[in-house]
Design goal:
The chain is about 40% helix and about 15% strand. It is α/β, with parallel strands linked by helices. The chain has an eight-stranded parallel barrel with strand order 1-2-3-4-5-6-7-8, surrounded by six helices. Strands 9-10 form a two-stranded antiparallel sheet. Strand 3, helix 4 and strand 4 form a beta-alpha-beta unit. Helix 2 runs parallel beside helix 3, helix 2 packs parallel to helix 9 and helix 6 packs parallel to helix 7. The longest helix has 17 residues. It is globular and about 55 Å long.
């Protein structure tokens, strides 16, 4: 019946959660105040996100301790591809050890691929094993390295084989809104395999409901707005960035209002 369809839809909307991608304590607090269930903490979001410092991780965990908001931390030692050398991998394991024993993180986020573009199941399983043997339960998330694989559904299966808890994906497209059919298939396969599927990549107030309609109830967005610098003196001839032009006197921060707006849009049952 129409009512039962609406009820099922409303029930699904109630489970919608938003993870906000952040790189600062200010963004963490904005995300929490907007209703985020989780933050993904990175450094260098302009590079797609790199491993943050232990100091930042501890500061964010401390700031969010009054809130019921989980902290997931990026493990990515460099920009570029996800085919890691042994030296790269040792850095990832060292950072993982620090975060497990010296912070209150709830999850770590990583992605390792083989040269043929498929998921490196052995390395992902190693992360899961080490995280499970730590002082408390920390889950492992496969990030959008999954979208760099030849087959997103096969990559989801591989992540499940490695016992990864959750994957972040745009469905293999530039933006999640362009891969609704794939996301629907991934949501169904994820439910069968017992692995969470979270959609990310261009999630906004305008398309959140469209994404949730695929059956994916976990969303990921930076929900950012530019924030102007309070510097009065500004040197016009010196740039700290290697590749100009960069907005040196503006930063991007998560917006409490945008976080709330994305959740509101995602949780609004369809009118038809």
């Amino acid at each position: 019946s129409t009512q039962s369809t609406w009820e099922r839809s409303a029930e699904k909307m109630a489970y919608v959660q938003l993870e906000v991608c952040i790189d600062s304590v200010a963004s963490a607090l904005a995300a929490a105040r907007g209703g985020a269930a989780r933050v993904e903490l990175c450094a260098a979001l302009s590079e797609g996100g790199l491993t943050p410092s232990l100091g930042l991780v501890k500061a964010v965990c401390r700031a969010l301790s009054p809130f019921n908001v989980e902290v997931a931390v990026m493990l990515r030692p460099r920009s570029g591809d996800f085919l890691y050398s042994e030296e790269d991998w040792q850095v990832i394991l060292e950072d993982l050890d620090l975060f497990l024993h010296q912070s209150a993180v709830n999850a770590v986020v990583c992605g390792a691929l083989l040269a043929d573009g498929t998921v490196d199941v052995a390395r992902m399983a190693q992360l899961v094993r080490i995280a499970s043997e730590g002082p408390r339960h920390v889950s492992v998330v496969l990030h959008r390295a999954l979208d760099m694989t030849p087959d997103p559904l096969a990559a989801l299966q591989a992540a499940a084989t490695a016992r990864v808890h959750r994957v972040l994906t745009s469905g293999g497209a530039h933006a999640a809104a362009h891969a609704l059919t794939t996301l629907r298939a991934m949501a169904q396969l994820g439910a069968e395999l017992g692995i969470e599927v979270m959609a990310g990549g261009g999630i906004t107030e305008q398309n959140a409901a469209q994404i949730v309609a695929t059956g994916v109830a976990l969303l990921h967005s930076s929900a950012r707005v530019p924030v102007a610098s309070q510097m009065v003196f500004r040197n016009p001839v010196v740039s700290m960035a290697s590749s100009a032009p960069v907005a040196e006197y503006s930063t991007n921060q998560a917006s409490t209002e945008r976080v709330a707006a994305i959740l509101r849009a995602a949780r609004t049952p369809p009118t038809t």
